[in-house]
Write a structure and sequence with these properties.
Largest sheet: 4 strands, mixed
Number of domains: 3
CATH topology of the largest domain: Butyryl-CoA Dehydrogenase, subunit A, domain 3
Number of strands: 10
Number of helices: 11
Shape: globular
CATH superfamily of the largest domain: Butyryl-CoA Dehydrogenase, subunit A, domain 3
CATH architecture of the largest domain: Up-down Bundle
């Protein structure tokens, strides 16, 4: 494996860094606060600025507004934006949904959605989980019944990330009343969230942030032409969406954590505790060294999966490894940060004594959710055991 970047890729990294310097992330309004996932906050203005640069769609074919670039460029962009805490979270699902449309969409769907996704003119979310179908999406109860040129959708989705800020959803529904097996009867739809019959209710988390939502669908009419892929054959699209979430949503965790670690180290070098610099305390030094090692391990594993993807290798369990380690890193980072910073770290935005507007307190409160979103840690470990280690199911 060779993790070295080409000259063109390094030149692109320099271009992104220059862009961030010329467009300081703090100068942009955000609709979604940064809770420490690694993708920063969410800003419609910033998303559209990236769209104007052609960077949101740069891995897509030219005929759909792309630049035919390798996915390594996407990673470099996300990594640099993550390190500089740029607000890129809001358009994350645009990239995954765009990929699904490229692979499974009709030509009309590609022409209709891809240019708008690439310019950041519309925002997508993915509506998969339900109250009784979290880790087991085969238990989906939301129904889509065909009537002429439309499907009538009824049901409820939950834990739908950023639905209240989105225009459209990639939604999973059951399309036959009596499934003959778990693998049959599920379909994917492109659903306009402004359609009559849709109610979206944000769910505040323990950090008082609104990341997730409930989505209620009551007799929602969806044109049949918005069916993505074949009817009753939506599972491949589901699996692809989950792999996208598991890897790409965590691919920049190491870069974001590195920036946080630098801030903590700087604080430790500038702050005295019990008569000496915090950085001189053996316990503090040990915690920071352990965190640095964990960040580097996450970094290397992420690069390995990127290397596999760039060579068109179909992932089986590798994304689950990255997700598990990255989510645990997020929790460990928040714990170490508050331990080092002390009481100031718990002060929230609005207090003149707060550190970075209460960033680490928000991260600590939100980090347990990392291990649930995109599939629980238990499910990831099961995937690693069965597909990676080939252990028997008992």
């Amino acid at each position: 494996m060779d993790f070295a970047f080409t000259k063109d890729e390094e030149d692109f990294r320099s271009e992104v860094r220059k862009f961030v310097q010329e467009n300081p992330p703090d100068a942009f309004p955000v609709e979604w606060e940064d809770t420490g996932y690694g993708l920063g906050a969410g800003s419609l203005v910033y998303t559209r600025l990236l769209g104007e640069k052609g960077w949101l769609s740069m891995t897509w074919p030219e005929e759909y507004g792309g630049q035919n670039r390798d996915i390594t460029y996407r990673f470099i962009l996300m990594e640099e934006l993550a390190y500089h805490r740029a607000p890129q979270a809001l358009h994350f699902f645009n990239l995954s949904v765009g990929g699904s449309i490229l692979l499974h969409g009709t030509e009309k769907q590609k022409q209709t959605f891809l240019p708008k996704l690439g310019r950041g003119e519309i925002i997508f979310c993915t509506a998969l989980s339900e109250p009784d179908a979290g880790s087991d999406l085969f238990a989906t109860k939301t129904t889509a019944v065909r009537k002429g040129d439309e499907f009538i959708i009824n049901g409820q989705k939950v834990w739908t990330t950023e639905a209240h800020l989105s225009d459209w959803a990639l939604l999973l529904a059951q399309t036959i009343g009596e499934k003959t097996s778990k693998q049959k009867g599920l379909s994917m739809f492109l659903v306009d969230l402004r359609s009559p019959g849709i109610t979206i209710q944000p769910i505040p988390n323990i950090a008082s942030e609104e990341d997730f939502c409930e989505v209620f669908l009551d007799e929602v009419n969806v044109p049949a032409e918005n069916l993505l892929g074949d009817e009753n054959k939506g599972l491949p699209i589901v699996f692809e969406a989950l792999e996208e979430d598991r890897f790409w949503a965590r691919a920049v965790r190491a870069a974001a954590a590195k920036r946080d670690l630098e801030d903590i180290v700087r604080y430790a070098k500038e702050t005295k505790y019990d008569g000496r610099m915090l950085a001189e305390n053996p316990r503090t030094r040990n915690m920071l060294v352990e965190l640095a090692i964990e960040i580097e391990a996450c970094h290397v594993l992420t690069y390995k999966v990127l290397w596999l993807l760039s060579r068109k290798v179909v992932l089986t369990h590798e994304a689950s490894i990255v997700k598990t380690l990255a989510d645990q890193l997020g929790q460990h980072l928040a714990s170490v940060a508050l331990d080092c910073v002390g009481g100031r770290g718990w002060l929230r935005q609005g207090s003149k004594w707060s550190m970075q507007g209460g960033r680490f307190a928000r991260m600590y409160a939100a980090s347990p959710g990392y291990t649930i979103a995109g599939g629980t840690t238990e499910i990831q470990k099961l995937t690693i055991a069965l597909r990676g280690l080939h252990l028997p199911r008992v």
